[in-house]
């Protein structure tokens, strides 16, 4: 076929209904979670097995490669290809059946692991394997890589848990495989007959080289074809990385959940010592034994605050050991024994499920958290999945550390230590001249090292493009000939995932980072954490895909637009890939103004959820602002940039005659017309301007307030001043009750948030610079600066340093507090909220920049019953107001906020500190949101009426 468009049209004619050939989609799918960049011809999203067969038939006829893809979390480059990428996660994602009696589930390949878990849990069952990407990886992807996860000790690998498969071979032959069937009774099959001949000719090689230890995942798992193993083709296909067949359905084994789980954390002086100790713990039959390094924990503390990490025992490395029991006493007894049998320097038994879950989340985010090396450099996959026999793990870790020292690189090992599987990302200098050569040399040396230990190049991720070329260092020529013969049996035309396992691509071909030039010149943000390099910033995305998961149940925000559309291009990862393609410049060719870039970033809410929730620290809100700044600098902008982007300026003008402006907006027909002209969706309402600004109220009532108290500077944002002065008044009331005397800056200041979100960054620097200058004298005097509006507080705490420089902005950032932080630091006793139910919608920037932990603790201290919502309200400043965004804005609100509000009883307080969150509530519901200050002030006033007092 001549082009992507013509091949897409041909696919549609053959019955494949959902085919994408646009540049944005192809850019978004150009990588998975690996180092490799391979732009597909088209992306097809089949709806059923028939469409899958049709796509395969056309690919075979035209000689076009076909690559299967699930969640795109493949770390070795197993899910990228130059031809058709079949994305099963979009439509073929159902759990088809659960059989509680047989303890099996039948699923389509795109079913997400956590969705299967939820379906199985209704019957008291679970699917055993649980890789760290369980919230977004698919069962088909787990089958492709033979994924294992943390609890392999208890439940085995994916290959141990697959009971049957429906697949299409590369020749188009349809096979229905059942691992429990007698292979001699299967219907005649050309592929299986040929495979039996291949197996018979290689029995000696298979018996001596395959299945030597549990984590030997590299290559094809030919041990399952041995006569003594029943010629189990089902299990052999697990881990074949989509090179032999395309799965359209799977039947998997389910197991019962243990009655009780207990986590034991063991501390060690270093990670190698933890590796030495791990095998000794197997006598307690743990379901998990995971190694983690102190440096990963430090990343969590640095990025999310000290409260993000529960207390850990002493040491610089830890083993997380999970034991189970039929009752709690049995599990606790086993847990205490675990702490005494090995050379741990300290131990801790964690019985609180919430605390254990927090620790497991750190381990689950390991791949992302290790994305920066101990040297502070980008750390890469490639050698991230080696495994050795567990008894040799400690020695291997020491030799591997010596190898990194020899090459002048660093990395932080972690992983499944009792299985002998080590994950690590290494800061190989791929972005420097000669870096590709260093990469190749290191990879070869590492492969030779693991082979000397009798290990495997891969322990669960598969070999993919990252390691397939290195298989000759692990296997004999006879074994490699068997791989080729098996491949030829199933896929003689090399259509399925070519370049992987057999006839592999070079390990240093198609690397993404070396093809990306440095981009430092004329940037608006400083990108301090990325050495001032926008290229390094967008390559923070390693593709682990947490942005494709629903993180709201744990209070997460990222990524609301993906949850609304389920389109890869609308995920944080998809956007990062498109920006990476822009920097590469070979396919996305118009730089910042490229249509692909604008399409990918259009539905980004700038919520900053990714800045805290993404394990690698991607800040897509900043990247979008930079893109808008670069695209429109010196050019005509969209109308909303002039209206919403400069809202504080218009609000200041309107405040001179707010009654007149409000009346004008109520004239029939005028309001909607004005909205449309301003680039605002007509379905939105226009919030009225306050008849008296907060600053006017503050000045006029100064004589009514206390003259004593500790001074505190109140940062009055534009939203509070011009739209909701009652929030500011409540804040003053609470501060005075806490023993403070609020004061204001001499003139109204602005954080320039609306200019930032619309990419008017030159103006933002000037406005924010004046504000920081006005605040600096107070910061220098040691006055706390209290923000009222979370998004504006976040600018002072975060964006200001990026726009103005750390030296200028840091003193103000360090002195700026949220109301809850200030009150908590003072030890203030809040008024009792006993009996009050609160549904809390933390502002996204509050969550991402400051964290909402202090607010939660203050409310808990007051006795309120709090339900904290995750996700975004959907308005997100100017986003949900602009034309073209309304439907997505409402869809985002439907993820958490609107259902919670509808379910809330009449007396429930809807807590929403953010002005945009309260505006969304007003627009879409008949309920009103309250700021924390309003909730506390109302209770203080009620107490005053009843004669109660609050003690400072």
Task: Describe what you observe in this structure.
The mean pLDDT is 95. This protein starts with a helix and ends in a 6-residue tail after the last helix. Helix 10 runs antiparallel to helix 15. It has 42 helices and 25 strands. Strand 8 and strand 9 form a beta hairpin. Strands 5-6-10-8-9 form a five-stranded antiparallel β-sheet. The protein is of the alpha/beta class.
Secondary-structure blueprint:
Elements: H1 4-13, E1 19-20, H2 23-28, E2 42-44, H3 49-62, E3 66-69, E4 84-87, E5 95-99, E6 104-107, H4 113-121, E7 125-126, H5 139-145, H6 152-155, E8 162-169, E9 174-178, H7 190-201, H8 203-209, H9 233-237, E10 245-253, E11 255-256, E12 260-268, H10 271-277, E13 288-293, H11 294-304, E14 317-325, H12 328-341, E15 346-350, H13 353-364, H14 366-369, H15 393-407, E16 414-416, E17 421-423, H16 435-452, H17 464-467, H18 477-490, H19 534-538, H20 560-565, H21 572-584, H22 595-602, H23 609-613, H24 620-632, H25 639-643, H26 647-654, H27 658-665, H28 670-677, H29 694-700, E18 710-715, H30 718-722, H31 725-737, E19 740-743, H32 753-757, H33 761-780, E20 785-787, H34 790-804, H35 806-815, E21 816-817, H36 819-826, E22 837-840, H37 844-850, H38 853-862, E23 865-868, H39 886-893, H40 897-903, E24 909-911, H41 915-924, E25 929-930, H42 932-946
Helix pairs in contact: 7-18, 10-15, 15-16, 21-22, 29-31, 31-42, 33-34, 33-35, 34-35, 34-37, 36-38
Task: Kindly report the average pLDDT value.
Answer: 95
Strand order of the largest sheet: 5-6-10-8-9
Q: How would you sum up the major sheet?
A: 5 strands, antiparallel
Radius of gyration: 29 Å
Number of helices: 42
Give the helix level as a range of percent. Answer: 40-55%
Shape: globular
Number of strands: 25
Task: Give the structural class.
Answer: alpha/beta
Strand content: 5-15%
Low-confidence stretches: none
Give the CA-CA distance, first to last residue: 77 Å
